[in-house]
Design brief:
The protein is 35% helix and 17% strand. The protein is an alpha+beta fold.
Length: 387
Amino acid sequence: MTCGPREIVTPFRPIPLDVPEGMKPNEFFNSTENLNDLEHNNGLLQTPEGLLLYRKALGHSNEFDCSIIYNTSRTILDPLGRPVRRTQVPEAVKNVWNRMNQIIIDFMLERYPDPEAHLVLAGEASLDATWPLTSPGVPSIRMLHNHFIVFDKRELAAAPVADANNPNLTDGGQHSLFQAHMREVYRAFFDALDLKILKPCDKGECKLALTGYPQGLPSWGIPGGAETLKEVQFWKEYDIILKGFIDFYRAFFGQVSTRNSPLPRDIYFPELVEEKLLFNNDFLKAAKMVRDRCITDAKYANAIRWQPAFKQLIYRNDKGQLIVTISQNSIGNAITELLGVVVNRRPDAEAYGKAEPALLEKLLEVRRRLVEADLGTGIATAQWDAS
């Protein structure tokens, strides 16, 4: 069997939305009107905190695929002013979010117990306002949302190997700026974070045999598996990893932007940044390299995401262990590409219709478990009722 990233075709039912004349599709998708459609045509459950569970109309996988979005479309009309990462979510909302995550991941592992048969993953990609809305790779809905996805490994194995130069596959491994020029600094910084549960993975332990991904990323095992996700401390450490990443990213691009710049404001680990980064010659040498190129290469400078852009996920490796990893999100936004899965979505209502009944059965069961745990109330659509 060939090891390499796979490109799969996922059929979807065309969305019956007319984009107003003069608007780009991703500008319209950020509007309250579009979010109304998402809720009323694909919404499964909502909580008083504004968390909305919904079926992905443009899905990654028709085996299992849903998302939770922090729907602030009516309370924050400015798309660039909405919470776009976990660290910006109020604690009471995040507590509910974490419990929803735990229950949905537990369902996926229960329904798909064999790591050799199915790839299970859940996580978020950065939606920070780092590019113009009309640039390629900019998220279509600028509100924090996460993904819960299952792929059939037989379908992945049968899929053609993706082009290794696909721009969406350049976020990790030898292609990443952090990995190529600051690998040891990056690892040492993460190793200094105070983690009591999460354990750094041994070399090669996190990589999927089928795709060869993730490539060279810092990764941590979750001792105890799904049971550990029921512990508050796990979610605190999941956030510590994100906060560490944000500090590293902001410190680096702060130096790229302005030589010898001070510590970024509101940094999470100031002593760690000062000791491990701002006095490290390799770190500052890499910043100079990028700064010098930005001065002479306008296209390169315009492509940089100056604010923290990341992908963070929990997934199951080939041995059945749960792994946490995080990556710079330099170009693409699809969370699946971190694991070497490129999704080619194609409109095909007939093909989607064949997969839809089984998919809905699983999504409605997830909804039932969330309602039972007092995590929201059901939403009725034309295809399903509220209970």
